[in-house]
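Chain X:
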Amino acid sequence: MSNVYMSGSKTRYATRKSKTYQEGRSCDEKGCEVTLSKYNERNQCFVHYKFRAPRVRGHIDARTKK
């Protein structure tokens, strides 16, 4: 048999488990019955979550802000 396979090593350290939340939760928005993932920490689905757009045009210095 030829040497077709690559050799490798196992992870030598313990990997951290993903944080999970309660299963079977649904979106908080009225009338929305989307079941949220157990890995989603928010209470709204993607459609109803209010994303905040980052500032695109430079930095606001808090010391000079009135």
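Chain Y:
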Amino acid sequence: MAQAEVVLVHGGLEVRLGSVSDLRCDLYLVDRLARIQLAARRMGGSIVLRHPSTDLTELIALTGLGELLPHR
């Protein structure tokens, strides 16, 4: 199984920011990811979650942030 990771996307460039596989899946994590996304968007980029767990995907959807925090 692939590790869940956060990737910064800007133009055609993608940079892996880090793994979230070992972090507790809770509202604090979703809040941190949303804040990183907002900071990335202010700089003209965005973040994408790669291989997020089902729990994280469902928690993001439950908070209504599914469009803000896309995943692949």
